[in-house]
Design goal:
Number of helices: 23
Radius of gyration: 31 Å
Oligomer: single chain
Bound molecules: adenosine-5'-diphosphate, magnesium ion
Structural class: alpha/beta
Strand content: 15-25%
Helix content: 25-40%
Shape: globular
Length: 685
């Protein structure tokens, strides 16, 4: 047997078990070994019968005194045995499992786990878990026992047995790939120790060491991989060299003067563009910091160097909005912008694709539609993805592959806790827009309970009377008796007997057709609607500077980063803006989070807070998208190991970027094993 062997080559694994194992993601022996338990039960400590506390769960190691009795009482079929250890006796009964009569053997030793009660004056366990104790196979009892994620017909005992046997057999073949120096400097245990003890920990301490090693490896290898990818990208020359960097024409065409933060980032971009290797840069900037203008200038630079630019946004609405900002600006400069999205009629799509291919279109804005097969560019020199965390690394590279080593620019407003940025965007250089456009009044944030409903509705009405507009965000689309959340669909009706009954209202949510959504968004942008009721579909990028109120219902349902994004939809113009968080939550941590929102406007600070108060939750659900899923590391809890792994990967990479030195060879092999199938650098369509 080898590590790379298919699971079906194991003895005791036939067709059926292969299918079951495949279902939980186990295809090879290697997968099986790395199938990390989801939890453990400590079955290493038993109580003597005399020490069992009535009403509390206990594990006892006992023998069966005599043949089990089976009898019927009412509708119940009962099996009863008397068990004993050196300290006493107890009764054990099971209901409706008559076969146990033949399973349980007198004199055999069993481990019984359950709650004991006094029944008919005797200590009695009712329907406890039990397992036979056999010295030679102590993998289910008498130790810390792993619990795995299962699927129907795949049980713990089977998995434990398979993993145990495989580890035992493979032990001589499991090689250490981590250079000795890294192991020493970071105080890591050996790989074989880690694998054995993650499944069958000898002790709490051994488990801790094992887990630390595996978490370290996972993060270290990922980071090293991203560093090498970056190295590879840098090595290749870009297909279209850029030689012109004069931006006056476009900056003069913009309706505002660039902030110093924007200017700095543009300078960094120009420096990248003037190098012979492709730019690979992430532009981070809080919501409203003006990332769009930076993208526009990058596109302009591409244009004057004879190259096309592609701008990919995660949603239809956002792509359209970008188009509406880009098109008029560039039209004045004689530069042609087109919009390609899935919801266009086939005829239009065909026409636009033709323009992209012929080079008639200079700037191409679109959704995922851009990465489809039929889209071909004439001279793609720059790829920009907006709100990067919505796209995977691979999607980004799919678009890049349509050019000849084009420059890439990634824009993200999601404030990523600093400690995680490197792992998540390890293959990118990072620029941050540090300033906000001036003249923006800070958005005042209030946290209120629904008791204030009439008052804040009155406040919104006043804003509308002054010519402003408002967003109301609900956590649900439809009402649901159980959850009791405010819902988008019924919200307008609920305003019928409030002061807002006569203002113009509309709603949007993710389940609507793109055209409907777009129409409503356009109406709102044009001021034809006073209040837009929405789900978090409006969270990303929507820009309506006249809107001055963001009201969020059931605000405790959202993470801080998400609330911050939502709040960023207002305060985008010259008007004083307000964010009202409504919540009746009784939970102290939730209240704490909402209070934090009223105190700080800094997205980074909020994202760090979010992590400490709430854990990674959905935040990383989406963020991780596009990275290989982490099997064991928890980016939230393992912050310390993450730092160590990052530092170790960084210094190893700096010392030996191509992993050519002999102590690093096994590591190089391991990276290859892990990522060979992952076509990060050479995507093919
Ligand atoms: P984000 O970084 O969230 O994508 P946008 O690019 O949408 O932000 O910009 C937010 C708003 O700020 C837009 O209305 C935009 O026109 C405006 N804006 C951008 N840069 C400046 C600037 N330098 N001065 C004034 N307003 C600006
Ligand atoms: Mg934006």
């Amino acid at each position: 047997m080898e590590i790379t062997s298919e699971i079906s080559t194991l003895k005791n694994v036939g067709k059926k078990r292969t299918e079951l194992l495949n279902k939980v993601g186990i295809y090879t022996v290697f997968d099986l070994m790395e199938y990390v338990p989801r939890d453990y039960t400590d079955r290493s400590k038993f109580s003597a019968l005399k020490d069992v506390t009535v009403g509390e769960e206990a594990i006892v190691k006992v023998r069966i005194k005599s043949k089990p009795e089976a009898f019927i009482r009412g509708r119940l079929r009962i099996v009863r045995v008397t068990v004993y250890d050196e300290t006493g006796e107890a009764a054990v009964i099971w209901f409706n499992q008559p076969y146990l009569k033949n399973t349980l053997k007198p004199k055999d030793e069993y481990l019984i786990t359950g709650k004991a009660e006094i029944y008919q004056n005797r200590l009695t366990f009712t329907s406890p878990d039990f397992e036979a104790v056999k010295e030679e196979e102590s993998i289910n009892t008498g130790r810390i026992v792993p619990k795995y994620h299962l699927t129907k017909n795949l049980n713990q005992k089977l998995l434990r047995r398979l993993i145990y046997d495989t580890l035992t057999e493979l032990e001589p073949q499991i090689k250490e790939y981590m250079p000795q120096k890294v192991l020493e400097q970071n105080g890591l245990c050996s790989r074989i120790f880690a694998l054995k003890n993650i499944h069958f920990p000898e002790s709490d301490e051994a488990f801790f060491q094992a887990r630390r090693r595996l978490v370290f490896d996972e993060l270290f290898l990922l980071r090293l991989r991203l560093l090498t990818v970056r190295g590879e990208i840098k090595k290749e020359a870009c297909g279209i060299p850029y030689t012109f960097f004069e931006t006056d024409r476009i900056t003069e065409a913009l309706p505002f003067k660039l902030t110093t933060g924007q200017q700095q980032v543009i300078d960094e971009i120009i420096e990248d563009l003037s190098s012979s290797s492709p730019m690979n840069r992430l532009v981070q900037g809080d919501v409203g910091s003006g990332k769009t203008a930076v993208a526009e200038i990058a596109c302009y630079l591409s244009y004057i160097n004879g190259a096309q630019s592609a701008v990919m946004a995660p949603t239809d609405v956002l792509a359209t909005q970008h188009y509406q900002t880009f098109a008029p600006l560039f039209e004045r400069l004689g530069i042609k912008t087109v919009l390609l999205k899935g919801s266009l009629p086939a005829k239009d799509k065909r026409e636009i694709k033709k323009q992209i291919k012929s080079g008639e279109a200079d700037i191409i804005i679109g959704t995922h539609a851009l990465i489809q097969k039929g889209v071909e560019f004439k001279e793609l020199g720059l790829v920009i993805t907006d709100e990067q965390h919505r796209f995977g690394v691979n999607q980004r590279h799919l678009l890049t592959a349509k050019g000849k080593n084009p420059h890439t620019l990634v824009m993200s407003a999601t404030p990523i806790p600093r400690t995680l940025g490197l792992i998540l965007y390890g293959d990118l250089d990072i620029s941050t827009i540090t300033t906000m456009p001036s003249g923006r009044a800070k958005t005042d944030t209030f946290y209120v309970t629904s008791a204030y409903r009439q008052r804040f509705y009155g406040f919104i009405l006043n804003q509308i009377k002054e010519g402003r507009q408002a967003y109301i965000v609900c956590a649900a689309i439809e009402e649901n008796e159980k959850s009791n959340l405010k819902a988008v669909n019924s919200y307008i009706k609920s305003l019928d007997d409030t002061c807002l009954r006569n203002v113009r209202k509309a709603f949007v949510h993710g389940k609507m057709k793109p055209e409907e959504k777009q129409q409503t968004m356009n109406d709102f942008a044009e001021g034809k609607i006073d209040i837009l009721i929405a789900t978090t579909v409006i969270e990303v990028g929507i820009n309506v500077p006249n809107a001055s109120v963001m009201l969020i219902e059931d605000a405790d349902r959202f993470g801080l980063s998400q609330l911050h994004q939502l709040r960023g939809r207002v305060g985008r113009g010259e008007y004083k803006s307000y964010c009202i968080l409504v919540s009746d939550t009784k939970s102290a941590p939730s209240k704490e989070r909402l209070k934090t929102m009223t105190k700080t406007a800094d997205g980074f600070e909020l994202s760090e807070k979010d992590l400490t108060l709430r854990g990674p939750g959905d935040f990383f659900g989406t963020l991780q998208h596009g990275l290989p899923p982490l099997k064991i590391a928890n980016l939230y809890k393992d912050g310390e190991i993450l730092k160590e792994a990052q530092n170790a990967a960084q210094s190893l990479y700096e010392d030996d970027p191509e992993l050519k030195k002999s102590p690093n060879e096994p590591l190089k092999e391991r990276l290859f094993e892990l990522y060979e199938a992952d076509k990060i650098t050479a995507p093919s369509l």
